[in-house]
Amino acid sequence: MGTKREQWSSKLGFILATAGAAIGLGAIWKFPYVAGMNGGGAFFLMFIVFTVVIGLSMLISEFVIGRGAKKEAISAYKKLAPNSFWVWVGRLGVIGCFLLLSFYSVVGGWVLLYSGLAVSDNIIHEGADYGQLFGQVTSTPWMGLLGLALFLLINIVVLSFGIKNGIEKASKYLMPLLFVFFIVLVFRSLTLEGAMEGVRFFLKPDFSSITGESVLYALGQSFFSLAVGFSCMVTYSSYLDKKESIPSAASSVVFMNIFVSLLAGLAIFPVVFSFGLEPAEGPGLLFMVLPAAFSQMPFGSVFLSLFLLLFLFATLTSSFSLLEIIISAFTEDGKRSRKKVALVSGMVVFLAGIPAALSFGVLQDVLIFGQSIFDATDYLVSNIMLPLGSLLIALFITYRMDQHLVASEFQAGNTLSPSWFTTWTFLMRWVVPLTIIIVFINMIGLF
Predict the structure, then answer these.
(1) What is the 8-class DSSP label of residue 382?
(2) Is 367 in a helix, a strand, or coil?
(3) Where are the domains of the chain?
């Protein structure tokens, strides 16, 4: 293949695109409702610890593997460990991204539909029941399928243009706007009557509410919100220039992720308690809280429309990374058209997402281990496959990958002392795998 491999145009472009991939639904949609279902403050504290100690270490690892191989996920493991079973770590990532995208795109469809309703001024009005509106959107088959189809169509179009002209260009302009709007929403939420009760729920740890399952959820959320465990970041970092510092870039992404999770909690929980909503509401929490909060603001409909459009963008940047790992797996050899692979991949994901899209309506009585199709897919991906993928990556980078290459990638582009590399290696060799194993054992009741 005589073509030169595409690269990010700058470190900032890479960080914003990676943060966009990580933040999206993980920090804004999923974090508040999972925290609400698992004790609030104690969950947030565990999430921070897991994200800084384990999530950051994992993110650096995926960056090292990706830039070290200069290949997408499957080809990266083939190159670094030829003729071995390690290629299945990459294949597990592609399968996991496919499953994750199948239910993720359903939520993306909800955001898209809500954006359309907000722009047409059909959400905020006198006496509105936002819980009923959410139920209507998610349980109406044609609405769920339309949202799913349109959301995936946007993904297909953007990813057809590639890395620099598609993902990076969009991320660079719209991610900062999302931060600004979030801060505005936080200020408004904190001035509502009864808001401090929500702040206490979110920031004051109550460890009596912690169970083995909530620890697993906190670990799973740290992986989900950073998009690590499925080698998405292996693919993203394969486009990263050698002169950029991997630890620095990874730390920036982790900081932004925790900051947005903090903003999400401070924006959502004061409204939940002010309006007498239930913090353990589940996947619909955000869609009930946002309209309630913006209805209390001057020009609420305008602000809600703008926020939902930016939220839609954050949702899309996350889905881009998931679809990119699938597309790049089939276009790495240069034999297939990127546009055709993007189209076919999107259509297959749409078919796979139909059961999850209908699990709030016509398929709501179909349960898997007592959970809806949507919730069961989410649980499988977030709490089993992501930690398992992270465990395998930790074992790969410490016991199989060439340690000279690992060290050179870690040190390239930075002036960190060798002790930082030693600390990271210790975390990846012992702390990360043992933590994942202990949490798994605790989950199945054997610990």
Answers:
(1) I
(2) strand
(3) 11-96+122-140+166-299+376-443
Q: Which amino acid, 163?
A: I
Going from the C-alpha of 16 to that of each of 4, 11, 51, 172, the distances in angstroms are 23, 9, 18, 6
The answer to whether residues 216 and 445 touch, using CB atoms and an 8 Å cutoff, is no
Instruction: Decide if 233 contacts 67 (C-beta within 8 A).
Output: no
Q: How confident is the model at residue 4, as a pLDDT?
A: 53
Strand partners, 367: 372
CA 113, CA 426: separation in Å to the nearest integer?
46
CA geometry: angle at 380 spanning 376 and 385, to 5°? 170
pLDDT at 68: 96
pTM (2 d.p.): 0.88
Q: Which pair of structure tokens corresponds to residue 227?
A: 């998009």
CB distance 25 to 318 below 8 Å:
yes
Task: Looking at 27-72, list the stretches that DSSP marks H as alpha helix, in order from N- to C-terminal side.
Answer: 31-37, 41-50, 56-69
**Residue pLDDT, tens place only, 39-51:** 899 999 999 999 9
pLDDT value, residue 348: 96
Tell me, what's the pLDDT at 32? 93
Cα–Cα distance, 249 to 270 (Å, whole number) = 32
Q: Which tokens sit at 175? A: 């991610």
Q: Which helix (H) or strand (E) holds 372?
A: strand 371-372
What is the distance, to the nearest Å, from the Cα of residue 10 to the centroid of all Cα atoms in its chain? 22
Phi, psi for residue 228 in degrees, rounded to 5: -105, 155
List the one residue out of 194, 330, 239, 272 whose CA is nearest residue 21.
239
pLDDT digits (tens, 9 = 90+) for 89-116: 999 999 999 999 999 999 999 999 999 9
- Each residue's pLDDT tens digit, 406-424: 999 999 988 888 999 999 9
User: 2 in helix, strand or coil?
Assistant: coil
Nearest Cα to 252, choosing from 409, 54, 59?
Answer: 59
Q: At 70, which amino acid appears? A: K
101, 51, 399: which is closest to 232 by C-alpha?
101
The neighbour count for residue 98, using CB atoms within 10 Å, is 19
Given the structure tokens 């073509």, which residue do they identify?
3
**What whole-number distance in Å separates Cα of residue 32 and Cα of residue 286?**
8
Q: Can you tell me whether residue 165 is helix, strand or coil?
A: helix
Alpha-carbon span 447 to 439, nearest angstrom: 9
pLDDT tens-digit profile of 174-218?
777 778 888 888 988 898 899 999 999 999 998 888 888 889 899
- 169 pLDDT band (50/70/90 cuts)? low
